[in-house]
Write a structure and sequence with these properties.
about 250 residues; mainly alpha; rod-shaped
């Protein structure tokens, strides 16, 4: 149930009462008197609760019921005063009866509104509680699943770390082997170069020996003087190098 915005003066007065009065029932009673006597507003339980917002929603209804009873008792005493004319006492009684009836009707209607709001709030709270329980049950089911997935992920990570360490060890071993192989190949190249030089030197020395040998042979087979009987020309093959000699 919606009300028009309260006047700034009424709002400030109620705030002042809140600061001054700590007892909830006394505060509601003072607000009742403020509305009815100073501002001419018929208080209702719902309106009181909207203005004060303290205690349960049943508190303003109970305070309002006591307020109307006290007001009726005071009015009855004044109307029964012997100095008042009968017609005024009758009219005053009728006015108070109407006021009381209207107040009771308004209070009953407003109390029903409060009860309806309380039922709606209770139903909303129950629905939220059921939704929360459903979410909690879902989480209870998912937590073991998530834990299992987490454990499996950790295990895979550990296996990957171990495999990486193994591969790094293999790479280090292969690197050392490649380094040793490269050093061995360098040593073999150096030995091969030395052997090639030795072979070339040996071949040169062998060719020199063949030449010297050919010269020795030629000196040992000198031909007789020219024109002497029985002389034969020197053999041509004695001047040739051995077949194995280089060009």
């Amino acid at each position: 149930m919606m009300h028009q915005a309260e006047s700034p003066g009424l709002t400030s007065e109620i705030e002042a009462l809140k600061l001054r009065i700590t007892d909830t029932r006394t505060l509601y009673r003072e607000v009742c008197a403020l509305l009815f006597f100073r501002h001419g507003i018929t208080p209702t339980a719902h309106r009181l609760y909207q203005l004060v917002r303290r205690g349960s929603m049943g508190t303003p209804a109970d305070v309002l019921r006591v307020f109307w009873q006290e007001l009726r008792e005071r009015s009855r005493v004044r109307l029964d005063h012997p100095d008042l004319p009968m017609d005024l006492r009758t009219l005053g009684g009728e006015l108070m009866a109407q006021l009381w009836t209207r107040a009771q009707t308004a209070a009953s209607a407003d109390l029903e509104i409060l009860r309806q709001e309380a039922r709606e709030a209770s139903e909303a709270a129950r629905e939220r509680a059921e939704a929360a329980r459903g979410e909690l049950d879902s989480l209870r089911i998912r937590v073991p699943q998530l834990q299992s997935a987490f454990d499996a992920a950790i295990q895979r990570e550990l296996e990957a770390v171990r495999e990486l360490a193994t591969n790094q060890g293999r790479i280090a071993s292969m690197t050392d082997l490649l380094r040793e192989t490269a050093q061995e190949m360098q040593r073999l190249r150096q030995e091969l170069a030395i052997a090639q030089r030795d072979v070339a030197r040996a071949v040169g020395e062998a060719n020199a020996l063949r030449v010297q040998l050919g010269l020795v042979k030629r000196r040992g087979k000198r031909p007789p003087a020219t024109g002497l009987p029985g002389a034969t020309p020197p053999a041509q093959d004695d001047l040739a190098l051995d077949p194995g000699s280089p060009d």
